[in-house]
Amino acid sequence: MTPGLLQEASMTMGNLKTNSMTSFLILLSLQHITSYTPPDNFAINCGSTISQTSPDNRNWTADTTPLSITLQRFNHPSLNNTLIPFTTSLFSRSQFSYTFPLTQGPKLLRLYFYPTSYPAFPRHYSLFSVKANHHTLLNHFNASLHADNHAYPSPTFTTQHYINVEPNHRLNITFIPSSTAHPKAYAFINAIEVLSIPNHLYQTLTSATFKTVHRINLGVNKNHLGSTSKPSQPPTPPKTAKKNNIQIPIIASVVAASLLVLSFIGFIIFRCVRRRVGIARDGNPGSSSTRCREFSLAEIRAATSNFDEGLIVGKGGFGNVYKGNLNTCEKPVAIKRLKPGSEQGAHEFETEIKMLSRFRHANLVSLIGFCNDGGEMILVYDFMTRGTLRDHLYGSSGGLSWERRLKICVEAARGLQFLHGGVDKQSVIHRDVKSTNILLDEDWVAKVSDFGLSKVGPNASHVTTDVKGSFGYLDPEYYMSLWLTQKSDVYSFGVVLLEVLCARAPIESTVDKHQGFLVAWVRRCYHDGNVHQTVDPALKGAISPKCLKKFVGIALSCLNDHGKERPLMKDVVKGLEHALTLQRCYSHGRGGALKEKSEEVAIDLTKIHYGKMDERFGEVMHASSSGKPTTNCSEEEQALVHEVFQTAR
Questions:
Q1: Which structural domain range is residue 547 located in?
Q2: Do residues 527 and 609 both lie within one domain?
Q3: How many other CB atoms are found less than 10 A from the CB of residue 640?
Q4: Catalytic site includes residue 432
Q5: Catalytic member of 63, 432, 536, 571
Q6: pTM of this prediction?
Q7: How far apart are CA 597 and CA 523, in angstroms?
Q8: Are residues 417 and 341 in the same domain?
Q9: 109 touches 445 (CB < 8 A)
């Protein structure tokens, strides 16, 4: 049993529908409500030198935490007293803590945030973790991006957590900047509230394991949650509280908790029923995870002539890829062998097996099996005869017609759309979309590959994770915030679209610096009305003007600075399909048989915003010496990125 905190639980409640059972549970809960006086009731106005009263008559105690060179307070002059306690804050690039001596029992903890820029502390660098004793409440939390993505009517928000304190223990709330992710990361807090709650309410709320990302209003009346606490000196519990006033919030809390529990039970029943139906339909409950075979090392050695270097058809961060022949397979296979000290390892190996064993699609590379024998980690795929997309854009394999390039883009987009849509509530963020990870089979069908860096989980808006990927393709928003979303894949795919159009690498060190970074160069030409100058010379005169306009619009929409402004992959697919239709009509219409269609697909891919993020991305990449992303670019190419951003300002 962990000393101090027995348990920490956080939860969120969506729209709940009531029925007769819900009404019964509410009435049952109300029978057990009695008057309650909270033994602990603290409210700290962080960064404030004076105690203040908010418009709802809530008393907020002054913060007497001693300042230092690294720990600073700030008073927001743009905010009036109606926004107390958000008008002041404490912030630092170093770790800092608040300590509360509390009585035994369950507590409600609220953290108040107003993400904004401070002197020398830009808003988007607010990246930190919050711990309550040994329990992590918020991990690598980007407050500014959280507020932006949830579109709150106010720029302020709170998070709410439920904890249980053992006898004779203090509650230490620690704010830890994520300096390993970004050197300029800092932590901040506007206010802290700690309130005792009844035992039965705590047990009800923590019976369901949900994670909170925003404040849950349980009806607590702030007029009667006064505080006499100071974080730097042990706060003293309030002596009295009005029983009648505290009874109302407890009733509301139990009502909300009852609704939550009912919804949770209904969700579990739904999942169980759905799973049984799936088993009955498939006839094999384990079929979704047993679609690939485990090979022995002896079989792999026989298939590759003991890893003959003459059979190597590709090399990457994972290791070498061999062309092999297995007795159990009629066609050649691709065998990817992990090399010692590779950039990828056991975790990526396991991720790719689990993902490709479960997700099957015509535009995803098929995993035949794996080998985890004799200390080797090997993956076996269908062999892609035509190699990578990049090979046919600016490699030794020569060029592709524009119509074939469009078809490949459509198919690759369909593969990503399938990943984002998910299976059984499990969606995938690829995290390493690039032209070398789009393979072509004998019939030129495109298939997305290399899922070692992918994130698999419940359908959600984001995943907070370390930065991994390849320079030139990385989403700037993800790089700066560690906030990985499906829109991060959309950005990377936008870079691939520009590669297809221009037959140029994302980062090119052999050309003029103004053209070295593909995205910045195409954006500049588009802004100047000269986007035709970026087109692959081999395609001059072969592209329909309307198709070119449509295609560039899709690509630049994918490359919008902010993820919220980028299209979903399903919309990218529709847009590319329309571009392909325009091109085919143009090609056939040269002889007068067909005319180019003029109708537009009803998809909003026209909003193109850029410029500011490039500068911010350049600053972050220049400053970040630690926490570098996994990349396949050379040091020369990485250095070029910094030069490009310096000259682009």
A1: 387-648
A2: yes
A3: 22
A4: yes
A5: 432
A6: 0.55
A7: 27
A8: no
A9: no
